[in-house]
Amino acid sequence: MDFQLTSWPTLDRWIWTAATIAAAFVIGLLINRIVIARLQRLAEKTAGTWDDAVILELRRRIPFWAFLIGVRVSAVYWPLQPGTVDFISKLTAAAAVLSVTSALAGIAVGLISSLGPRVQISGLMRNVVRMTIFTIGLLVVLRGIGVEITPVLAALGVGGLAVALALQEPLSNLFAGLFIALAGQVRIGDYIRLEPGPEGTVADFSWNATQLATSTGNIVIIPNAKLTQALITNFHRPSRDSGLTIELTVAPESDLAVVERIGLEAARVVMRDVAVMPTAEPSIRFLAFTDLGVRVGVNVRAQQFSDQALVRHELIKRLHAALTIAGVQVSTVDRGNQKPRTA
Q1: Which of 38, 225, 283, 323 could form a disulfide bond with 299, CB atoms 3.0-4.6 angstroms apart?
Q2: CA–CA distance, 35 with 31 (Å, rounded to integer)
């Protein structure tokens, strides 16, 4: 260092070191404020979100990268041994590689999330992506500091076999969770029913279990291996809307044309105001003659399976009111003596 600020060389070195690191850090902040800010404005005009993920990771990492550059440059101010300089160089390079690895992991997760409805990324998938990229980054760091990675990989292979034998159940849940996430037959947000077992909305996949949110607000934890072995009904596949049928029996002397008209009118109102499916058309089907009269089925659709309870409630209430006004008797069975009666 040729520029002297004081009569103490060590103090001069500390001053130049601090000034260099501070200047590099400020340059990083200026890059964020000027360059990255303009790129972000351009990214906001695009439809996809992958560029937003890239810019977000760059904004987080650029000041740190500038700081590492300042540390590396300031090392020349000190009369260090070649081995020490090499150590500082490798240390800053390792920190830079780990930081770039972390940025790439964040960008990869953002890219997968930008695929939208085609891929729903869970906590398990995020962790797998990050773990894979961090493992590659760690191997690069080890290679950069002079560690031979071939023996390390061999040791990991032998150790991995021993771990697999000791942790069969956790690993089976892990790979079952990966299979579920990659297959896409059950996704986050789907309403499913296990036979036999609970039903609810898939909240998330973790490395060992799937979280199922029930209609009562509770969370059911299902091991991933159990989920792959269960018989599952997915009410959101192939479409989210679902159909339901309300059955009733009208008295044999009822005018079926009037029953059909009233049922269709009530079903259309419910599907428009409650089910919020104005384009779908309900239907009425007379199913059979019984000892009590004519059995009728009113078929409607709901936006999703969890809406069926409210749709059924409103449809029964409106059907009962309309049929009562029209003088149509709805027949039921008294379960106590199994004799028909009218309501």
Answers
A1: 283
A2: 5
